[in-house]
Specification:
The complex is a heterotrimer of chains A (441), B (408) and C (179). Chain B has 408 residues and is mostly helical. Chain B contains 20 helices and four strands. Chain C is of the alpha+beta class and 179 residues long.
Chain lengths: 441, 408, 179
């Protein structure tokens, strides 16, 4: 018998990564499991509303999952070597069945993810959702910082993926991008050298970007994402819940029958907290399953549809093979860095004998300041508890204007950089034709 | 509980379900469309058309042998994977010489020296080897620099010599030849290079003056490196070169290059030649006229000549000279393993106690092994060898005598 | 939902409900079918349509260029034998698990009996992986090898007189190409 027990235990240990010592431990394991608690039991109408959250976070996650799915298949098809990267991408486009679709979906999702994560941040700011409400233990500023980190990681993921096709677009975008990094004071050159594994973008750079792109950055995003979601539950759900709790009048409702866990065991009766304002929960909230889960499926499906349709409309470009001897004209960074490239172009300062490279101001100082400001602001935000979880709260008018202003400038610069800058970075209005670039034949 | 509130509360459910269903159907439709796209590529139509033509011309049996699906010619040496034969299936078929492309047989003579499995298609014709759609494959798309050098381009540039464009590719390998059979435009241009003395100012293939730029790898340059401000025609490297050959000053006012008043044809041929001057990336065995071989000195050539055609030619041709010298005939052994055959008549007698005739007809030891496996000699050849060896011995004897008398 | 239906038990509502149910089934079914389609696409993309492999048929030079005796073509894993004017080719791939067998010269000729025939051999093939051994003609006699080594067809090209090997075509052990 002893042996049988022992075998059973070993068997369990093999199947389970952890063998609970008691029923309480087993119960705790379930209660504490993040994976089993994505969603609360009940979800408020405000949290469910399209208008409040716009489901931008969900969309970001769905896009991330599309990227992981298509990326895993693409990893089998892509060869990260300077000799074969380009031709393997060409093969994905032309001779791999559905290869064009996988690549196109991967690319569209990557671009959309940058945009959607950015919009998600804008939404959180404009609804004051990085502010703590009344819930005990909530630490929304921390989650905001996690979010900012994930925005930066999203940019990095997209940027590292940009080099992999090894075409002219990739090569020169990375040249411009990494040279911005090299303009950082003191350590800039070393950072670039370490990033590229040499002085030039070559095999070392390619394999580094590849490993970052397919392993380290996605894993980091996934871990941060788990933390992000866990914090949302710890913070008492979306910020709009705090607002609902504040604004709704407590309504007299029949006390709900509950079970109370007391020292002496389970007692039936009415619980104490029914007198709380949270009684409204019953009227203003619905069970998460199936209402929230259905919504999530709907958002997932919608995101898939948009990605699929866009994949048809915009075929992923692939330019000439990377050629270090020919700089295409114009050579542009990825679009989400074009506001920086635009600023970099305009900020080279001449102070008497001393010239400050625009890359330092526009490429290093400005973004660093913006990130620092974003990280610091939740702790500085003077608005009160009434501004939590409300779109464009009057109390936060001034800061919202400043924030929108910064975003609009970034967006305008991005648009200028993307659509209005032609050869030699000259400015062209939309109806002005760019000079045609010469060809061989 | 207030039922009204509950109803209101779940208002969105109906909508959500409706959207979900509609979205699901749309999703299925799109997936269906993707599959439709997958089973109807352009090349499938072309392959079935080819099959129809073959069935009509040669019967269903031959049509059944046609390979279906994507086809690829892979040439490892050139790192080329051409999908052209997916549509151009008749390349090596007989009897399709007069059919319109893409189903025409490839001209046979040129294929004999340039078999498809060693050269592929794009190394000679240009175009985008990766592609599997006509337009992309012919390379007339954005971001592809090397389009098909065929009729379309010839028509575009009004090139009178229809084959001139393709010869750009021929000359990628044939660049070190003075004249290449069939490449008339390039041959004409090479002739002009000599006649007009281009090397007076330019280095070409390592020779020439330094007044003008080195043109050895001019075709390697990118189109952006030229200034098109004064180029009236299409902004391409090829048209720049044509215009520049016709009148250099028109494109570069400060140039010292004289105007040679080239005709249109000559200017086009020269432009083609210049465009062909690329760095060779193929293995050297693909480059005719290259110098990657031992160059024998005059002395070595003379010695070889003497050995091959002198009195001892027999011993050289029959490989005896690998081990044996025949000093009186001037044959020198490559490796002097065996004794000098000039003294064989004496030698055999003293070593084996047999006459030369007897020994050669029935050799023993090493010579038995050699003559039975590596260098089989017929009876007539052996007799010839014996006769020659006697001759060599006589010569050697006189040689030795004169040497002795001289010593005395 | 239950309560809602109890409140309005009209015929009209139940047909609407069944219609809605139908729509929902179709919707969910479509999503599942679509997902299955995407899954298939991902798997299909991993089945290559073109191969970067060299041809099974290749030329190895003219008969005169080959030296007498054995020539090992490393890349093709093939032993080509020239015996005066006859030629044959034996695969170097061990029939056990595909390691490359080594041509082993024997110190002294060995008498072997095969199919009732007595032969003298000067060399053998030995596999380095699991010790399989083959006689000169490729017949396995020791170790785990289940079959004799493959013999491949040799032809003479009518164009340039070069020998052509066809790895796709197997021939009997008595095959000889005589030129």
């Amino acid at each position: 018998m002893q042996i049988l027990e022992q075998t059973k235990k070993i068997y369990k240990q093999l199947l389970w990564t952890w063998n609970p010592g008691s029923d309480k431990e087993a119960g705790d394991a379930i209660v504490k499991n993040v994976m089993l608690h994505w969603f609360p039991n009940k979800v408020s109408k405000g949290s469910l509303s399209w208008m409040y959250s716009m489901y931008l976070g969900t969309i970001s996650f769905v896009l991330f999952m599309i990227l992981v799915g298509t990326g895993l298949v693409l990893m089998f098809l892509y060869v990260p070597s300077v000799e074969r990267a380009y031709s393997s991408v060409k093969d994905i486009e032309f001779v791999v069945s559905f290869g064009w679709l996988l690549r196109s979906m991967h690319r569209i999702s990557a671009h959309l993810m940058v945009a959607v994560v950015f919009l998600h941040m804008v939404r959180v700011f404009l609804t004051g959702a990085y502010k703590n409400g009344k819930a005990v233990g909530s630490n929304r500023p921390l989650n905001w910082i996690i979010g900012i980190s994930m925005l930066l990681l999203t940019l990095l993921l997209s940027f590292t993926g940009y080099l992999l096709p090894w075409d002219q677009l990739a090569y020169w975008a990375i040249t411009v991008g990494t040279n911005i990094a090299s303009s950082a004071p003191l350590v800039g050159e070393q950072i670039r050298f370490f990033l590229l594994g040499g002085n030039y973008i070559d095999q070392n750079a390619l394999i580094r970007f590849y490993v970052l792109h397919v392993f380290f950055l996605p894993v980091l995003v996934l871990l941060l994402f788990l933390w992000h979601m866990w914090r949302i539950r710890k913070d008492g759900g979306l910020a709009v819940v705090d607002n609902e709790a504040l604004t709704q009048k407590p309504e007299k409702v029949e006390p709900v029958k509950t079970k109370t866990y007391s020292l002496l065991g389970i007692t039936n009766g009415t619980s104490v907290h029914v007198q709380n304002t949270m009684v409204n929960e019953e009227i203003n909230s619905v069970p998460s399953i199936p209402n929230l889960t259905r919504r999530i499926w709907l958002v997932t499906l919608g995101t898939f549809l948009v990605v699929l349709v866009l994949s048809f409309i915009f075929t992923a470009p692939l330019e000439e093979p990377a050629n270090p001897t020919v700089t295409p004209n114009p050579a542009k960074a990825p679009w989400y860095f074009l506001w920086l490239q635009e600023i970099v172009t305009d900020t080279t300062l001449n102070l008497g004998f001393y010239t400050i490279n625009g890359a330092l101001i526009g490429g290093i100082i400005l973004p660093t300041l913006l990130i620092a400001l974003a990280v610091w602001w939740p702790y500085r935000d003077p608005s009160g508890i009434n501004a939590v979880g409300v779109w464009l709260a009057p109390e936060r008018k001034k800061q919202n204007y400043v924030f929108i202003g910064i975003c609009v400038v970034i967006i305008i610069f991005t648009i200028i950089g993307t659509f209005l800058r032609g050869p030699y970075w000259n400015f062209y209005l939309p109806w002005e034709a760019w000079p045609t670039m010469p060809v061989k034949y | 509980m207030n039922h009204k509130t509950v109803k209101e509360k779940l208002d969105f459910v109906k909508k959500d379900k409706l959207f979900l269903s509609a979205g699901g159907i749309l999703f299925l439709l799109i997936t269906g469309f993707i599959f439709y796209d997958y089973i109807t590529p352009e090349w499938k139509d072309i392959q079935s058309e080819f099959s129809d033509i073959i069935a009509e011309k040669f019967g269903d049996e031959r049509a059944a042998t046609i390979r279906t699906g994507l086809q690829q010619t892979y040439v490892k040496e050139l790192n080329v994977a051409d999908r052209c034969i997916t549509c151009h299936q008749a390349m090596e078929w007989k009897g399709m010489e007069n059919i319109e492309n893409p189903f025409r047989t490839h001209p046979k003579e040129i294929l004999e020296k340039h078999p498809i499995n060693k050269f592929g298609c794009t190394p000679c014709h240009g175009g985008q080897s990766f592609a599997t759609e006509t337009e992309a494959a012919h390379g007339f798309t954005e971001h592809w620099e090397e389009p098909l050098l065929g009729k379309e381009l010839s028509d575009f540039y009004v090139v009178n010599n229809k084959k001139a464009m393709m010869q750009i590719r021929c000359n990628a390998c044939h660049r070190y030849e003075k004249e290449t059979k069939g490449a008339d435009a390039i041959n004409r241009a090479k002739q002009l290079v000599n006649e007009k003395g281009c090397r007076a100012c330019h280095v070409i293939n390592g020779r020439g003056g330094t007044v003008g730029p080195d043109l050895t790898y001019e075709g390697e340059k990118s189109a952006e490196q030229y200034n098109y401000e004064r180029n009236k025609g299409f902004a391409s490297m090829f048209s720049w070169h044509i215009a520049h050959f016709k009148n250099p000053k028109e494109l570069i006012p400060e140039t010292v290059m004289p105007n040679f008043n080239f005709s249109s044809n000559d200017a086009q041929a020269l432009a083609a030649l210049v465009m062909s001057w690329k760095k060779p990336t193929m293995p050297i065995e693909y480059i005719p006229g290259h110098n990657f071989r031992d160059v024998p000195s005059q002395e070595e050539i003379e010695k070889e000549e003497r050995m091959k055609n002198g009195p001892g030619a027999f011993f050289v041709n029959k490989q005896c000279f690998v081990c044996h010298s025949v000093s009186s005939f001037g044959v020198e052994a490559a490796a002097q393993i065996g004794p000098d055959l000039a003294l064989a008549v004496e030698d055999v007698q003293s070593r084996f106690g047999r006459t030369l005739d007897d020994f050669l007809m029935k050799p023993t030891g090493t010579m038995d092994v050699v003559l039975s496996t590596m260098l089989p000699l017929t009876k007539e050849e052996r007799l010839e060898a014996i006769a020659k060896l006697r001759q060599a011995y006589e010569l050697k004897k006189t040689e030795l005598k004169t040497a002795k008398t001289r010593q005395k | 939902m239950k309560k809602e239906n109890n409140n309005s038990p009209e015929q009209h509502n139940s047909t609407e409900k069944s219609r809605r149910d139908f729509l929902q089934t179709v919707g969910v079914g479509s999503v599942l079918a679509g997902l299955a389609g995407l899954g298939f696409q991902s798997l299909r993309s991993l089945v290559p349509n073109v191969l970067y492999e060299s041809s099974q048929r290749f030329k190895i030079g003219t008969p005169a260029q080959l030296p007498e005796g054995v020539t090992f073509l490393e890349e093709k894993r093939l032993y080509v034998f020239k015996e005066g004017k006859s030629f044959y080719a034996i695969s170097a791939s061990c029939t056990h698990l595909g390691c490359t067998v080594k041509y082993t010269k024997l110190n002294q000729p060995k008498e072997v009996e095969e199919n009732g025939e007595k032969k003298t051999i000067n060399h053998e093939f030995h596999c380095p992986c699991h010790g399989s051994k083959y006689y000169a003609d490729g017949t396995n006699y020791a170790g785990p090898a289940p079959r004799p080594l493959l013999w491949h067809k040799l032809e003479l090209s009518p164009d340039d007189g070069q020998l052509i090997v066809d790895l796709g075509e197997e021939v009997e052990q008595n095959f000889r190409l005589t030129v």
